[in-house]
Amino acid sequence: MNHKAINYINDFICWIKKNQLIKPKEEVVKVNIGCGLTVAYGWINIDASLNAFFSKWPNFILKKLYKISGSKKIYSLEDYCSILKNYVFIHHKLEYGIPFPDESIDYLYSSHLLEHLFNKNAKMLLHEAYRVLKKQGYFRLCVPDLEYIISLYKKGQKEESLQYFFPDSKSGCLSSHKYLYDYELLHILLKESGFIKIQRCSYKIGDTPDIEILDNKPEETLYIEAKK
Description:
This protein is α/β, with parallel strands linked by helices and 228 residues long. Helix content is 36%, strand content 19%. A 7-stranded mixed sheet has the order 3-2-1-4-5-7-6, sandwiched between helices. The radius of gyration is 17 Å and the shape is globular. It starts with a helix and ends with a strand. It holds the Pfam family Methyltransf_11.
């Protein structure tokens, strides 16, 4: 089965579950949306990949999935299986919204997700983030920094810069960029979504828990925290 067929099947599974609603029981609720396999203990991790769908399945299934997964470029088989077995994953496509009730989340984290959504869907997701956060809740948002990407082009690193705009032909539907942002663009969108305190942060510095584990790609990333 080729990757295009696998993507169609995955999309169909996500569509069937598009109205799922998670009612968290934790006193402090921390949710990582579009997590991939970058996770931390105590977080609920939402992702649209088949990795999330097959988490907690028997090892012989995970071993087969690992062979066709892009994760094998980064993780050993042992680490891959351990992550899927020992962390909480929810298989869900965020274009259908964030599957939590109103004002039910204390901390929301998103790293290198927003740029994979068309601008219209990204705006919807930011409104969803505001909806599901409790009052005084935090949303840490990490994306490739458009200002940094343009600086690469100006410095003559044109091929590296253009890779952010034009994905490789082998990239799957979950890995291609649909839009890019700088601080000003995201500040406007977050403010329009209702957030009142929006600030630019540094790598692994902020009010969100576990960012020393979750934050990545410091050179290219714009880090923002928005408070409801």
